[in-house]
Amino acid sequence: MTREEFEKLVEAEFPNAIPEKFHTLIKNVAFLVEDEPDAQARLENGLHEHETLLGLYKGVPTTERGDLYGVGATLPDTITLYQWPIERAAVEDNLPIGQVIRETIWHEVAHHFGMNEPTVRHREAERDIK
Asked: Could you tell me if 79 and 108 are in contact, meaning their C-beta atoms sit under 8 angstroms apart?
């Protein structure tokens, strides 16, 4: 899949990943697409040689933004989706790539809303049961 096709799929899956009532609460966030995690992201996330990430949130979660957040120049938070690992996961798990993108967006936006990794995984497990 080309980068352009992948980016269009990310754009198309966003409304399916995040309920509409939360769209206006996602503020100052840039969505990015990269091939795969770079050496710095791998190191910061403690990844071993054969481990990877599907996505990565970097920024100040909404739960930690105080009254002075955004006063002056404030760079946006970023949610990066990693195309190659997402494509591999879709093939390995026999899932549509759109579903893997959708789940990755949900996961990273949950971090933006202040959920830590155990909480996000717990919520994902609850969703899978329903």
From this structure: yes
Give tens-digit pLDDT for 30-88.
999 999 999 999 999 999 989 999 999 999 898 888 887 877 778 899 999 999 999 99
Contact indicator for 82, 55 with CB cutoff of 8 Å: yes
**Distance, CA of 34 to CA of 40 (rounded, Å):** 14
Has domain 3-129 been given CATH number 3.30.2010.20? yes
Rounded Cα distance, 104 and 81, in Å: 7
Show me where the domains of the chain are located.
3-129
Closest by Cα among 120, 109, 88 to 6:
88
Q: What is the CA radius of gyration of the chain?
A: 15
> In terms of pTM, does the model score above 0.85?
yes
Give the integer Cα–Cα distance in Å for 109 and 71: 23
